[in-house]
Amino acid sequence: MSKKKPQDIPQAEPQGDNVTQVQDEVLNTEEQETVEAQQDIEKEIETLREKCADLADKNLRMMAEFDNYRRRTNKEKLELLSTAGERIFKDMLPLIDDFERARQAMQTTEDIQAVREGIDLIYQKFIGFLEKNDVKQIPTENADFDTEYHEAITTFPAPTAEQKGKVIDCTQKGYTLGEKVIRYAKVVVGE
User: Fold this and answer.
1) Which CATH architecture has domain 135-191?
2) Which 8-state DSSP code applies to residue 111?
């Protein structure tokens, strides 16, 4: 047996219809892949649009929720401010009752000492009321002058060197509410 060389093998001549058919199949496959890719892109775009719409809806709801929260807290603050003073005034009513009784007693009694004791009791009750509500007197006796708590109304020559820069006299007491000064103590400072 003799071996045939590849040149000896008759090759089929391509037929025009087969080439065109193969080319059409390749083009159809490429077009189909392009169409599928476009469809995938369109699906992805639609998914992203839905996500965007969902986020916009969530954002709108969150803004509405925050607006409702802000309104509610503002309303609560207004109610708190309008009723905050109510408790203090309610606690002061017994003091007013005591003052009225003291005034009536002053008109009918001859015992001045009893009136003084009654006034002292009312004063102590009022100081207790202030302490209960976190109102404290600013110390001034032998205190260093401090602009955070004291207001100097005048200076006076200090009787001793140790009293320079210190409070010599207090003409009006000062008070704090918690840590905040609600009235500065008016003082005379030694120089």
Assistant:
1) Roll (2.30)
2) -
Q: Express each pLDDT in 36-94 by its tens digit.
A: 889 999 999 999 999 999 999 999 999 999 999 999 999 999 888 777 778 888 888 98
What is the CATH number assigned to the segment(s) 29-133? 3.90.20.20
pLDDT, average across residues 112-116? 87
The pair of structure tokens assigned to 27 is: 């083009």
Report the 10 Å Cβ neighbour count for 145.
20
Q: Where are the domains of the chain?
A: 29-133, 135-191
Distance CA 123, CA 120 (A): 5
- What is the β-pairing status of strands 167-172 and 150-156? unpaired
DSSP string, 47-109: HHHHHHHHHHHHHHHHHHHHHHHHHHHHHHHHHHHHHHHHHHHHHHHHHHHHHHHHHHHHHH-
Query: Contact 168/181 with Cβ under 8 angstroms?
Result: no
The encoded tokens of residue 137 equal: 């007197």
Percent of the chain with pLDDT over 70: 88
